[in-house]
Amino acid sequence: MSIEVKDVTFRYAPGTPLETTALEGISLSINKGDFVLISGAIGSGKSTLIRHLNGLLRPSSGQVTVDGIAAYGKKVKAKVGVLFQFPHQQLFGRTIFEDVAFGPRNFGLRNPELKRQVHDALEMLGLGQGICPTSPFSLSGGQKRLVAIAGVLASRPDYIVLDEPLSGLDAEHKKSLLSALQLLSSKGTSVVVVSHQVSDLLSVAQKIFLLDRGSLVFSGTPAEYAKHSPPSMPEINFLMKELRSRGFDVRDDVFGIDDAFSEITRVLGLKEAVEE
Amino acid sequence: MNTLFFRYVPGNSFLHRLDPRVKITGMMIVSISIFMSSSLRQLASVALLFFLLLLFSSISPKIIFDAVRPMLLFLAVIFILQFFLMDGEPVFYIMGHDATYEGLRHGVLLILRFLFLLMFASLLTATTTPSLITAGMERMLRPLPLRKLGISSFDLATMVFLSLHFVPFLYGSFSHLRDAQISRGLDMRRNPLGAVYSLSVPMVRIAITSAEEVAVAMESRCYQGEHRSSLHILLLQKKDMAALISFSIMVLALV
To answer: Which of A136, A181, B156, B211 qualifies as a cystine partner to A91, CB 3.0-4.6 A?
Structure first.
């Protein structure tokens, strides 16, 4: 059970003066339950790569398979739920329920399962069922984004691919979204997040793929990434490295506030005091 | 997302180097002749003219095809309506309507006219940057007494410039939206009416909000529509005049 990308190259406008190689010889695999971060600068090919994962784009050469079958057709789209950038612009339903139910209904789900899955998706993102009869256009920008994400989660795909889901969200909503994604990942759903905001995701991602001008330049764990690309590390990681360089026996592969807090309290022997 | 829809394609061909006013005038002449064409022979001459220009442009036919492709469904609908709703000698009968020879002939002529208009327009945009088209239009409109109507050639040129910029932008937004809805299981073939609803509602919102954002951004940078200097200084040269005269003669002779 995995998405396999094998030696994929993709060119836009082939055979014209506007021909651009967006991806060059990309190979990677995403396994069941993985929490993957795909990062890279603007124009590095991130969005083009995720369009291959559910067959919206077909590679110029190479192959993409989802659970052993070629990544084309509706069956694959039901398995791989993709949310693109600017999801708040994609809403169209008269009510939030209609909008979120659009995907699962297209994939053949009917009431009462449909209703349950829509409610579950909204609950998971902290929006609540009470929001269902509201028009999606009356929401704030961040809430619209969450409704669009709920629209993907409601189909319960095996793989969830989200393009820049954190941009435009405040700290509280970021935290609740990441918790929801972590929960899904722990239950066996693979989560792929495409983001510039590496520092927000290092504490939750298990694998990182870094793209540069269409090529895969790094593939590994967050700890390996910390050694590969130090400038994009979160501030908390610099603090832990500084403490370590000053003789404190803390881990330097810590990327989140919660992990750093428990590490520091452990080293200082304050754990018991904090718990008390 | 990379779209070829009515995009400028950088190059240094003969057509690229022509003064934009010559190309705009040529487009106007050929548009009139296309609408005046009433036979397949005349439209075949238009096709010949187009392929001749394509040779002078170094533009790949794929660019032209990509600009026309999104309109094919629309053209097919026009053809079917003509074929079935026009009175005349019946060819066959289906669902209470006669398909007629006259409908077939008119349908073919009509979609070919649209097709050639789109092809010439895409050739113009592929060989001329939007800013040059705007500068050319502004210079062409300047002698007209538009001030008496409360508008200036600069206002009109700015509107044309913005409209030209919005075509690829809106097409890009549409492609983006279509991908998003297809990812959520939208089947455009089986449920075309549902597709029209789920795509048109956000598209209308995107068009209106984007236009409003552009207007606010222009106002906040003190745009007032008065005389503005242009990046391009346009000078009609002998080769431009020669090209326009030769093209006009060819249109008159062929069409």
So the answer is: A136
CB atoms within 10 A of CB B121: 18
A13, A78, A92 member nearest B2 (Cβ): A13
DSSP assignment string, chain B: ----TT------SHHHHS-HHHHHHHHHHHHHHHHH--SHHHHHHHHHHHHHHHHTTT--HHHHHHHHGGGHHHHHHHHHHHHHHS-SSEEEEETTEEEEHHHHHHHHHHHHHHHHHHHHHHHHHHHS-HHHHHHHHHHHHTTS-GGGGT--HHHHHHHHHHHHHHHHHHHHHHHHHHHHHHHTT--TTT-HHHHHHHHHHHHHHHHHHHHHHHHHHHHHTT--------S------HHHHHHHHHHHHHHHHH-
Residue A243: count other Cβ atoms within 10 Å of its Cβ: 19
Determine, for residues A84 and B201 on separate chains, whether the beta-carbon distance falls below 8 Å.
no
Q: B225-241 pLDDT, tens per residue?
A: 666 677 777 888 888 88
Distance, CA of A83 to CA of A89 (rounded, Å): 12
Interface contact flag, B184 A152, Cβ < 8 Å: yes
The pTM of this model reads 0.73
CA-nearest residue of chain B to A93? Answer: B198
pLDDT digits (tens, 9 = 90+) for B68-96: 888 888 888 888 888 888 877 777 877 77
- Grouping H, G, I as helix, E, B as strand and the rest as coil, residue A143 is helix
Position of tokens 């400028």?
B8
CB contact under 8 A, B60 and A82: no
ipTM metric: 0.75
B178 at interface of A, judged by CB pairs closer than 8 A: no
